[in-house]
Design a protein that fits this description.
The chain is of the alpha+beta class. It has 22 helices and 18 strands. Helix 17 runs antiparallel to helix 18 and helix 17 runs antiparallel to helix 20.
Amino acid sequence: MLIKALCDYYDVLAEKGLVVPDGYSKVPIKYKIVLTPEGKIDKIISCQKTEIQVQKNGKEKEILVPAMLDFPKRTEKPGIESNTIEHRPLYIFGLNRDKDSLNPQDRTGKAVKSHQAFVERNLAFIEGLNSPSIDAFRHFLQSWKPEAETENRHILDLGKDYAGAGFAFCLVGNPDLLLQDDPQIKAKWERAYVQSQSQPGEYQAQCAITGEVSDIARIHSKIKGVAGGASTGGGLIGFNNSSENSYGNDQSYNSNISELAMRKYTEALNYILKQRSHRMIMDDITVAFWAMDGGDEHEMALQEFLMGQSERKPDAEVVNASLKSLLERGMHTKVTTGELKAFDADLDGNIDFYIVGLKSNSSRISVKFIYRKKFLDMLWNVAKFQDELQVSKEVRVVPLSSIKMNCLSLKENTGGGNAKYVPRSRDEKIDPELLSRLLKSIIYGYPYPKALLETVIRKIKIDRYVTKTRAGLVKAYLMNHMEENKEENHKKEEWKVGLDKDCCDIGYLCGRLFAVLEGIQETSAETKLNSTIKDRYYLSVMEKPMMTFTTLEKLSSAHMRKIRNKKPGMYKPYKMLQAEIMDKLEGNFPKRLTLEEQGAFVVGYYQQTLRLPREKKREEEQGGK
């Protein structure tokens, strides 16, 4: 399904002129080599542009981005082989950079051999061609001697950037006309490429993608842009071990994918991974997604509801308003195609949408998951998930990055920034399988994995932080599994966005009561407490509420006496609130709480902390992520 979908997407991109023409490759170029008519280097100028990149900590940073230029198709063969109109510095200059010096000699003689291959191939290619830029390039090929250029200041001034940079040639006085764009160069290359494609390949068979008998690709092009992968890219399809071969076929002949289909799927996937609006990172998994229209609007709409922002809507408040609007349109059932158009005229609900998870392993790329669904159904399921995450009246998008962080152990942020909590350790990792299964559940509207509830409850017990996102994740799980619990003869509770005083779920009531007892303790204190009953009793009250609440009630009696004496205005509100909850509990505490009841405890605790008698102050303290 994946390869066929990418081939179809290539056709969509080709119609819009968004992919490289057949026979060409996109190459990242940092510098232009400006030649004199005699083939000497006049100067080397940068052709990079400045972009703003948002880092993991949320701060913006200016970075230099290479220009992506079309070159005659690049070779991907291992070993020494030059391209027509080369861009790699080792081939062009024949010089290794070692610290602050240049040297044509190395242990294997690679620099000398590479430059020689470059000169021979390109002199043969431009034979019979004449133009000012071609003539200058010819003079350069004939006159450049690596051993005489070890002190060349143009190259030395590039510093460490030299070895990994891409280069293009141009003529002094006309830097905008690059050598590979010279009409004579283009015409000859395209004739040569067409001729090479018309020759029968080494192995022909029926293509598994197109169904046509054609040349089968022996080696597939590299996929670049997958997190953790090599800079040169990795293979999505490959057979390197003889044990993987069938019927005597070698390497990717086993896959029966034609050269044409191979070029299409690799070009399409590389295009997707280059677009910031078409990808996101979940730990070590790169998630790529696309709608079958070749645009960006559908991708950015999904990005907004999963990540909290996009290039078209960088302001989180605007995205929150969009989510609220969409939820209101589908308040009773779900959003229709017509309502989606009214919500955003650029979105087509009937278009196919794909999400793929890729993970790099050395030089290979593995597919962790692939999801396909109509865009309207997918967007509505994501919006419904966001709705289930809300635990207060203020609607906000909870990004996947926040969900991931809240599945780790937390600590208070003392290093600056807006975040109230940060991960306790940089080395701790979330189970990637949990993220994958959660994403699948969100996209398809499936029940959320129980591991989500288990993970959040476990982390709360470890660090005692009941954040808004954690409470939301627990509430989302409970809402998602309401029908399941009903079938198991549990009393069905409608989990509301704000505090539900009518809810009689035993875990929810215990959580509310614990929040009230903590509020009583804090109110009774004359100064801010270093720790509260939450720090000492949270774990035991969730696991053994009957035994723990007996102890806490005795402590609360002492705290209430202090309040009556020193803050009499707070005594009655707390007394009434405590009595209200105790009436619903009928004075009986459960011996133990199930995992789901512990989840209800978390929701009740969080929502009650926002509605204690000192409501405004508590909202300020508890309103962080």
